[in-house]
Amino acid sequence: MHWNRRRASESEQLREYQKYIEALxxxxxxxxxxxxxxxxxxxxxxxxxxxxxxxxxxxxxxxxGSKEQDLPHQVAVLSKALRDSDPEVRHYAAAMMAALSxxxxxxxxxxxxxxxxxxxxxxxxxxxxDRYIHSGLMALAVRRExxxxxxxxxxxxxxxxPQNYEVALKLLNTLVEQAKYDEARQILPEIATSFPLQPxxxxxxxxxxxxxxxxxxxxxxxxxxxxAGWSVPxxxxxxxEYWLGEGKTWK
Amino acid sequence: MExxxxxxxxxxxxxxxxxxxxxxxxxxxxxKKFKIISIxxxxxxxxxxxxxxxxxxxxxxxxxxxxFMLLSPTKRGRSIRLSTQERLAVEGxxxxxxxxxxxxxxxxxxxxxxxxxxxxxxxxxFFWEYLLRTYSDGHATKDFNRHFWSLVSMYVPLLTLIQxxxxxxxxxxxxxxxxxxxMGLVYKFKYSKPLILTEHGIYAREREEExxxxxxxxxxxxKIWISYFYAMSTxxxxxxxxxxxxxxxxxxIQLELGAPASQxxxxxxxVDTTRFAERSSWDSRQNIGAVLRVVPIKDVKTLIRAxxxxxxxxxxxxxxxxxxxxxxxxxxxxxxxxxxxxxLTDRVVFTGHVDIRDxxxxxxxxxxxxxxxxxxxxxxEGMAAGLPFxxxxxGSCSELLLGRPGEGIGPAGIIVPQVSPEDTAQATIRLLTxxxxxxxxxxxxxxxxxxxxxxxxxxxxxxxxxxSFGI
Lengths: 251, 471
Prior knowledge:
The complex is a heterodimer of chains A (251) and B (471). Chain A is an all-alpha fold.
């Protein structure tokens, strides 16, 4: 009973938390929480509950079991466990974190060696970089170096497979993430033309305009998206709505 | 009077903290005679000797876990006749029972005339019936074939080892639980001699972690393997006449795992401070060092990642990774690849196996990013040289650097969380840029080692321990 009540109140809190984050992110023009993120948060909270409330043995079991979970979620829980007061819990979390980083790096290294002979492997290599870079496992300075390599792979991928939508979108996103705005602008029209039925390039453009302080353009792109009649993924709808309404007043 | 030291996978064949400790102990107790019983995986993979045993070592015996390969089952389906007590003891042993009669179990299983060789025993009706029983009792949902081979591969090296002859001595001193401890137990019962156990890390915990991450153990059987290692440790804890740990936290774990409190004691490691000159001057160089074997448990990759952050902020720094990379060549290469990937090739020096005293005077700060440690000798040596440390909170590192309550000596370094390049880097940058702090911590380090972790205390404690058994 207690548990159910606790869970219920936790869900309410989560909903409130989600609203708060959405509002905050919309106000900052950032990507709103996706359904996936909310699920990750819920899972993370559950994992963090374990880290807060249970015995070292249960924490240890949870850490070991966390192998089955998705990477960013797993990293969030393990990061918490790394600061646990019990040295055993910290040890298991550290060993698991090191193993995860190792696994990612070995996968990248293995694919890199094979991709020299088989260019088809460039695509899984790009995916492997993407997963590692966005896993939360890397310190910023380290991430920068991996990100540089990732970007050069994406350029190579775009050259080899100009019609590959995922590669194009990852390239565009990465250029924006790495604040290479001019390069992003250069390839934006080409990507928008190559994939005329996809709203994502324009959603990235909204972010690009926002990051460069072109608030008027953000609203304009939102209105282009609406006029084109695209079905915008649910996660992004609040952002587009915001810039079609209230966002228009930003200067 | 002779003490037989029993080791698993280390002295005199591999370098590392435990091997250095063994050499130090024997060298500084010249009045005692030692025999070495070294347990290694196989004859074909036996490395060359890495240490020259001191002159008071009278015998080196190497036992091999894979020597069962040399046995051929002369009799299949051997019928084994055991008394009820013997049967109960052996079954208790095979099922990791908590109330196993260890003495009866190991003496029975060591008796080839009674149970046959290890291979014969595992092909006997007795073992077959035990296998069927355990399968139907709790594992019937699993593949029987895997059940069979899992248990056989678990017991065959163990039984082969138990049945091997070892040298006679006046006391047996196992330097871990596991196979070394089990052999200590066999000799204790066989020759009615005392068994001393010194545990540096906690063997069962270390194996547990390996099994969890091991790809060679099917997920369904991980629990059995973990129970197997815990049971071996418990048997040794319950039977040893003296159980020594290096620091209090490990003693607590030994107690949790069944060691009787009255048998336990703590003897910390110690170093000869006269071998390490205290730092007299500090110049503007910014050399960072890490003394380690390049193996995953030392988490060298976090060290390299941390150095990436340090070198971005302090471009004049160099990282010396001091120690051998031979033990795990694949990992060593991965570390070098990471150095290249992070564009640190000119800033990171892998020295290989060297005398650390040649390097310590060049260094300003030492780092230790290990995932697990006991009481690292390299930390005591670095501290004896007056160097401050940035270290992860593992084993007794925190006690070594921050001291024990009421000790009256200030911190000798900064403790950081494991696998955290960012925290490691920031603590290192703090020490490299604050000369007064570095000097003060370095001086505290030297003082703490001189006072609490000196070689004389360490050697005297072991002398007394041996003498308490009349050796």
